[in-house]
Amino acid sequence: MGQQLIWWLDDWSTSIRWDDEEPGERAALGVDVAPRTRTALRRLLKRGIAVRAVVDAELTSTSCQVIAQYLDGAEVSSRGSKREDHDTGFLVSSDRTRRAAAAARGCTAAPSLVLAELRLERGALQFCEITGPRDLLDGRGAAVYFREPTDRGRWRYLAAMAASDLPALESSGAQVRVLDIDISVEDPVFVHIAATDREAWRTVQKRKVLLREPERALVALSQATPNDALGVHGVHGHYLHLVPDGACAATEMELRQGWRSAQLQAARLVGSRPRPKVRRQDLALDFKRLRCLATAASFQADVERFSGVAALDAGGPIASRHIAHADNARVVSALLRDLRAMGYCAYRHTFTHAGRTLHNVIADLPGRGDFQLAPSILDRLRAILIRWPLPDPPDPWRRAIDKALGPAWLAEHGFGGASPIELRLQLEAALGLYSWYPWWWRKCPIAGPGAELVLVGCHIDSTAASTAGYDPATDAAPGADDDASGIAATLAAARQLRTELGRLRHTVRFCFFNAEEQGLVGSHAYAAQLASAGAPVRAVVCSDMIGYNSNADRIFEVHAGYTDPSIRDASLPIANTIAAWGAALGSLAPAQIHSGTSSSGGLDRTLYDGAINRSDHASFHQCGFPAVVVSEDFFANQGGEPAADPNPNYHRSNDTVIDSTYGRDIACVITHAVRELAH
Question: What pTM does this model have?
Answer without folding.
Answer: 0.93
